[in-house]
Amino acid sequence: MINAIYLVGEPIISNRLFKACVTLVYFLQVCPLSNTGIVSPQDKSKSAFFLLSPHTPAKSSDKRSTMQEKPFDMYDHSQGRYKDYQSPVTATPHYFHLNSDSEELLKYFEAPMEFGTKNFTLVTAQIGSTAHIPCQIHHIGECVVSWIRRKDYHLLTVGLTTYSSDDRYSATHLQNSEDWSLQIKFVQDRDAGLYECQVSTHPPTSLFMELKVVEPKAEIVGPSVKYLTPDSTLKLICRIVHATEAAAFIFWYHNNRMINYDLHRGINVSTEADFLFSELTINQATNKHSGNYTCVPSYSHPASVVVHIFNGDNPAAMHHENRNSTEAHHTICKWILHFEAIILFVIFRTNVRVSVTYNLL
After folding, report:
1. If 196 and its partner were Cys, which of 120, 148, 153, 234 is the partner (CB 3.0–4.6 Å)?
2. Does residue 167 come out as left (phi exceeding 0), alpha (psi in the -120 to 50 range) or beta?
């Protein structure tokens, strides 16, 4: 966008109208327009006209520059012919300040180094996944970023070079970005702890990040033992907890047999797209559907339930009987332990008396 055109040097010409015409012709035919000004293509020097744009910074100079004299023809009415004129044009440099955009650019490069990530930020990763510990740095300049494991002060990376013998560690950085992340593949429990992102300023500046390692596990909603009658509907819901990313799969097993695709046996398995929730449904369950059911997600602890399908009208009574038998078993075990303790005490007292009598003799 053309903001203004300044006439720097003014030829000494008496005919103002002719001067304006010459100026217009010179402007349209000789000097090309550009974002940085109008430049004469013949001698590659600045002409008498400058296209001053607010987006074009310029250097200040104390010297005055005089352009080369250029002859041109002008019609002389008194003599009825064209005459040659030598018109020296003197150019005076203009002084102007940097625009706001340029000032912001200078401030950016002159600003001191600072971290864009908060100190002691908590990063959570699950076992077996890839952890990315961020470290955003503004105005890093020529400094170098290093990652240090704080629990043993082990140097992991310097720049993009890995110094650890454990090849699971690496530094990631995209060109012209401000992110210097530490990547840890196949995360394990022992990877948890503090990590230091250090910048080679004078003195060095550090940022501390904490990695928390979690182990996801499966949970089947409801009690661990279920009682059903024949022809009823068996529905088991499995969900994944403490997961930081989606599972690769969720498999259902019935007595160690994978049943995700046993539609012909009346078994239907539906799983959400993020593999954090799965539902197993069996319509009109029979005795053959009794047994152990296990939900097995990838990189997670499995969960199991036991299903009993029996020909009875009161499954609660069966559960009550099982509970009573269990309580009776616990009571018997307690009595046996008490009896054994009494016997051991009697034997110990007897041995002590025999020992004392022997010493007296």
Report:
1. 148
2. alpha
Q: Would you say residue 104 has pLDDT above 70?
A: no
Share of the chain above pLDDT 90, in %: 47
What pLDDT digit, counting tens, does each position of 195-238 carry?
999 999 999 999 999 999 999 999 999 999 999 999 999 999 99
- Beta carbons within 8 Å of 107's beta carbon, 6+ residues apart: none
**Local structure of 212: helix, strand or coil:** strand
Query: Residue 305: which of 314, 296, 295 has the closest Cα?
Result: 295
> What local confidence, expressed as pLDDT, does residue 253 receive?
97
| Structure-token pair, residue 321 | 């009987």
Element (H, E) at 360: helix 315-360
List the domain range (segments joined by +) for residue 330.
Answer: 325-361
Task: Find the CATH number of the domain harbouring 141.
Answer: 2.60.40.10
Contact 198, 146 (CB under 8 A): yes
Q: Can you give the pLDDT at residue 241?
A: 93
| Residue 157 phi, psi dihedral angles, 5° rounding | -140, 150
pTM: 0.54
Query: How many structural domains does the chain have?
Result: 4
Residues 266, 236 share a domain? yes
- Same domain assignment for residues 92 and 181: no
pLDDT at 56: 36
Residues 15-34 have a mean pLDDT of 55
The residue from 158, 191, 214 where one domain ends is: 214
Q: Which long-range contacts (CB under 8 A, 24 or more apart) does 80-89 make?
A: 85/13, 87/11, 87/12, 87/13, 88/11, 89/9, 89/10, 89/11, 89/48
